[in-house]
């Protein structure tokens, strides 16, 4: 997803389901890395872990054509959960969006960030017993950035000069950059950037995935379920605890909750906020919420009328009552947004003033633009909890500024393919990542998911300078300037940050409330029954 986020392309068959169902250098010893290799369950999580049992989870899924085993392609939440437990990354995000070491023991940049040395963890082996080596890392990078593969993570690693990169020894890689990079770790922690075994090109039933993660592949029914079993060779001592994990898929929130309430799942991911409110008194369903929320936004293509007029964009931003959306749509499970991505992330510009709800100012701007009684169409779909409700509430709010918003609800199965990036006014949401990652995926001019048509070469150039700035204070200031420009002139109406909500059975122990896309999110290595 997004992954990136929640680019869930289609609904699982409900009947079938119910039937079966560098903020500085990234170095070991730098604050934030020490002691982060493992996370032990606490007494509050249920005492001493025990082994055994089959963990069953249900999460939002994709159609049979989009539910893939390739970690470099798996974009849905369900696909991400499978990839997370089979494979591993060099580094990953902690819940505060700083970095946590995984397969990499150390990342060491040279003085100007043009060469990064990656030292791998000793003793890691693949599911088939082969040792993890530098060749696996180089192959993974090569596959990701090869233009012929057209992989979404290519944007994350586009700065790597593969011809100038090299294997130093079995456990050491040097990656040369095309230009200075102060933040390579933030990109290596991106959604798709998993390390795969050297030479691997296919991931399917005929070529079962082989990883270094806590669980091994066992079986797969596309669009419905994946079964994993314990990896006895896993590099984190004693983990995982459960014998197996079944990951069930359902794109409909009600279907997911019904699977859980019927006793067919131990964890239900991505509860809707209204469901969480209704289930608060259910002692058989413990509600867990992410420390950092996912971005929810209305997005305008600013190269299309009437959104090509900055006064219209500002008027539409002033029209939204953000707190009302948090209260009425998210039932308090969230916080207001300020039209900027990355709340809670390093270098987020929280000093930029909160944009107010000011329908009278919006009216004045539209009058100035010759757009009084503006009429626009907002496209939505029930692909993520809260989308449709937020769109309808926004349409009501807009009337105060004399704006008519026609809300058009599309089919869930076709929203991401036929509406998103095609219609000029739609909705989007993204998981929590570093700014460096998100800008490369969605903001720079040539981004694959440039969902606001923000194409400003001068901004792109300033971004390249910022991400290559080694000095932390200067780098923060340069990111603030980038965000100020996006806040003032961009096409995002980021109205809220919605908490990711999970429902957990009392029999589940060791479950961590996790920021979406962090190392702990959908990581079942710590869970026991």
Helix content: 10-25%
Largest sheet report: 7 strands, mixed
CATH topology name of the domain at 294-498, in short, is: Dipeptide-binding Protein, domain 3
Sequence of strands across the biggest β-sheet: 8-9-10-1-11-19-12
Strand content is: 15-25%
CATH architectural label of the domain at 294-498: Roll
How many helices in DSSP terms? 14
The CATH homologous superfamily of the domain at 294-498 is called Dipeptide-binding Protein, Domain 3
**CATH domain class of the domain at 294-498:** Alpha Beta
Low-confidence stretches: 1-44
- Taken from the alpha-carbon principal axes, the silhouette is globular
> Structural class from helices and strands?
alpha+beta
What is the assembly state of the chains in this entry?
single chain
What does this structure look like?
InterPro entries: Peptide/Ni-bd, SBP_5, SBP_5_dom. One of its GO terms (cellular component) is periplasmic space. By secondary structure, this protein is an alpha+beta fold. Among the domains are: 26-35 and 68-202, Dipeptide-binding Protein, Domain 1 (Dipeptide-binding Protein, domain 1, Alpha-Beta Complex), CATH 3.90.76.10; 294-498, Dipeptide-binding Protein, Domain 3 (Dipeptide-binding Protein, domain 3, Roll), CATH 3.10.105. It has helices spanning 14-20, 77-86, 134-145, 184-188, 253-261, 273-278, 310-319, 322-328, 359-368, 387-398, 415-419, 435-442, 457-467, 472-489, and strands spanning 54-59, 91-93, 99-101, 104-109, 115-120, 160-169, 172-177, 215-221, 225-230, 244-249, 267-268, 286-289, 294-300, 334-336, 375-380, 404-409, 425-430, 492-498, 501-504. Strands 8-9-10-1-11-19-12 form a seven-stranded mixed sheet. A four-stranded antiparallel sheet has the order 4-5-7-6, covered by helices on one side. A hairpin with a 2-residue loop joins strand 6 (160-169) and strand 7. Helix 7 runs antiparallel to helix 9. The two termini are 29 Å apart. The relative contact order is 0.18.
């Amino acid at each position: 997803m997004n992954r990136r986020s929640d680019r869930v392309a289609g609904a699982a068959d409900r009947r079938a389901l119910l039937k079966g169902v560098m903020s500085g250098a990234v170095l070991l010893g730098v604050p934030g890395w020490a002691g982060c290799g493992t996370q032990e369950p606490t007494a509050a999580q249920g005492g001493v872990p025990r082994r055994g049992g089959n963990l069953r989870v249900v999460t939002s899924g994709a159609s049979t054509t989009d539910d893939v085993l390739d970690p470099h392609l798996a974009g849905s939440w369900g696909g991400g959960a499978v990839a997370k437990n089979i494979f591993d990354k060099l580094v990953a995000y902690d819940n505060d969006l700083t970095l946590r070491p995984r397969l990499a023991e150390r990342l060491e940049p040279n003085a100007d960030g043009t060469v990064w040395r990656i030292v791998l963890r000793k003793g890691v082996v693949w599911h088939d017993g082969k040792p993890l080596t530098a060749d696996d890392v180089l192959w993974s990078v090569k596959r990701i950035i090869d233009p012929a593969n057209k992989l979404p993570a290519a944007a994350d690693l586009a700065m790597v000069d593969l011809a100038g990169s090299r294997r130093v020894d079995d456990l050491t890689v040097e990656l040369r950059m095309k230009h200075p990079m102060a933040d390579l770790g933030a990109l290596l922690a991106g959604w798709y950037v998993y390390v795969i075994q050297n030479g691997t090109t296919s991931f399917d039933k005929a070529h079962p995935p082989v990883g270094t993660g806590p669980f091994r592949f066992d079986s797969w029914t596309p669009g419905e379920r994946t079964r994993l079993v314990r990896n006895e060779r896993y590099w984190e001592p004693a983990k995982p605890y459960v014998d197996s994990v079944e990951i069930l898929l359902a794109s409909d929130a009600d279907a997911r909750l019904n699977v859980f309430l019927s006793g067919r799942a131990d964890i239900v991911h991505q509860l809707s906020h209204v469901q969480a409110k209704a289930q608060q008194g259910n002692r058989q369903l413990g509600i867990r919420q992410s420390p950092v929320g996912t971005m929810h936004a209305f997005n305008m293509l600013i190269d299309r009328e009437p959104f090509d007029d900055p006064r219209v964009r500002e008027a539409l931003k002033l029209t939204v009552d953000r707190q009302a959306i948090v209260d009425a749509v998210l039932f308090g499970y969230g916080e207001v947004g300020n039209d900027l991505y990355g709340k809670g992330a390093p270098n987020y510009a929280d000093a930029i003033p909160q944009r107010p709800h000011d329908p009278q100012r919006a009216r004045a701007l539209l009058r100035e633009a010759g757009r009084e009684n503006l009429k626009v169409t907002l496209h939505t779909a029930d692909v993520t909890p809260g989308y449709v409700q937020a769109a309808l509430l926004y349409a009501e709010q807009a009337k105060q500024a004399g704006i008519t918003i026609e809300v058009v609800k599309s089919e869930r199965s076709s929203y991401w393919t036929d509406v998103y990036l095609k219609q000029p006014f739609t909705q989007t949401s993204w998981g929590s990542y570093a700014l460096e990652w998100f800008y490369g995926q969605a903001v720079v001019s040539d981004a694959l998911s440039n969902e606001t048509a923000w194409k400003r070469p001068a901004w792109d150039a300033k971004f390249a300078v910022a991400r290559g700035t080694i000095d932390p204070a200067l780098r923060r200031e340069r990111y603030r300037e980038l965000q100020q420009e996006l806040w003032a002139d961009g096409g995002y109406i980021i109205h809220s940050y919605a908490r990711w909500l999970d429902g957990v059975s009392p029999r589940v122990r060791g479950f961590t409330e996790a920021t979406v896309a962090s190392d702990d999110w959908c990581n079942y290595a710590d869970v026991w029954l």
